[in-house]
Write a structure and sequence with these properties.
Helix content is about 10%, strand content about 45%. The chain has about 350 residues and is mainly β. It has one domain. The strands form 2 sheets. The chain has a 15-stranded antiparallel beta sheet that branches. Strands 1-2 form a two-stranded antiparallel ribbon. Strand 9 and strand 10 form a beta hairpin. The chain is globular.
């Protein structure tokens, strides 16, 4: 995570400081986009078996990666083997949250009249075409981020470093506490067709996420982010999946160049014959810009059928199938990271 120094949160925030330097973490298509239709009810839980356990485990791990993949480049974007983008949604959001909240006191709004609500917008032309619009509201015009303040960032076919950014994200502040050593932000985020397009492929996110993030300002530079949400729709490589009732935690140590995360929640979508539930009894962890070196993810389906994914460094993972849900695996299989990604 290299975004611990960013632009301030303020109604007149320069969009260049807000986004350039982390822009490549997001992309795709045109501007804000229309809201998705009401979601269909989640399908019944899948019965995990020897026929589908490997692909079910892979879909579960891919979903976690779309939220947390800290093995990606420092910019916050992971290029897949085919050159397409993957979302690293939590770090992408954190970078923009830091850009909105880091700055000098009094820089949030400019009027200095505490009794007036200050709202202003700014637009920036992107290096490769398109633009970014930032609209921020300081409810009490006190020059600081407070509960009730909000900001919307709209990516209007913004092109930079070979990536096209579309859609929008909005932050509603629940609280903010700035200090000499660290800042702590609590926000409710809404993503509206937030898209990443590169090398002919597109990833996207729509839905809600509440984050509580503490980011250090002095060495060691760390970020501790807990999150939860009711529904988040994700697409990658033509596949779509939806997280429901989800939660997690991401820990980044940018000084030591390490990360770890946990995640839980329901998942349904393409590549899955029904719904599954994710849990991480052991955090997925490893070096930044590298494969995980530890962790365990469990995917649970109907009748407590399960497949677990255990990281075995340095080569890959072991998948263990408990099809009858009695707590004792009937079989296990070792896969390299390349084999897992190919499923």
């Amino acid at each position: 995570m290299t975004d611990h120094v960013s632009a301030p949160f303020r109604a007149r925030t320069p969009a260049a400081l807000l986004l350039i330097g982390t822009l490549a973490a997001c992309g795709g298509g045109g501007g804000g986009g229309d809201s998705a239709p009401a979601p269909a009810p989640a399908p019944a839980p899948v019965q995990i078996s020897s026929a589908n356990s490997n692909t079910t485990a892979a879909r579960g791990y891919e979903t976690a990666n779309a939220l947390f993949d800290a093995s990606s480049a420092a910019s916050g974007q992971l290029k897949s083997a085919t050159g397409g983008p993957r979302l690293d949604l939590v770090r992408f959001s954190l970078a923009r949250l830091q850009a909105l909240t880091t700055g000098q006191p009094g820089s949030f709004a400019g009027s200095g009249v505490a009794s007036e609500k200050a709202t202003s917008s700014e637009s920036l032309q992107c290096p490769g075409g398109g633009s970014i619009s930032v609209t921020a509201t300081d409810q009490n015009d006190n020059g600081r981020a407070d509960a009730g303040d909000a900001a919307t960032i709209a990516f209007n076919a913004c092109v930079a470093e070979g990536t096209t950014v579309g859609g929008s994200m909005m932050f509603e502040f629940l609280s903010f506490a700035g200090g000499a050593a660290a800042d702590t932000s609590s926000v409710r985020a809404t993503f509206t067709n937030l898209t990443v397009s590169a090398a002919g492929q597109t990833s996207s996110a729509s839905g809600d996420m509440t984050l509580l993030a503490t980011v250090s300002k002095v060495s060691p530079f760390t970020a501790d982010v807990t999150l939860s949400g009711s529904r988040l729709a994700l697409t990658e490589g033509g596949e779509s999946r939806t997280l429901t009732g989800y939660s997690g935690r991401l820990l980044i140590d940018d000084t030591r160049r390490t990360y770890s995360y946990t995640v839980s929640g329901g998942v349904s979508g393409s590549g899955l014959p029904g719904s599954i539930t994710l849990t991480t009894p052991t955090a997925i962890s490893g070096p930044l810009a590298g494969d995980p070196t530890a962790g365990r993810l469990i995917v649970t389906g109907a009748a407590n059928s399960q497949v677990s994914l255990t990281v075995i460094p340095p080569t890959g993972v072991v998948l263990a199938l408990d099809a009858n849900g009695d707590g004792t695996p009937e079989s296990q299989q070792s896969l390299t990271w390349a084999q897992l990604e190919a499923l």
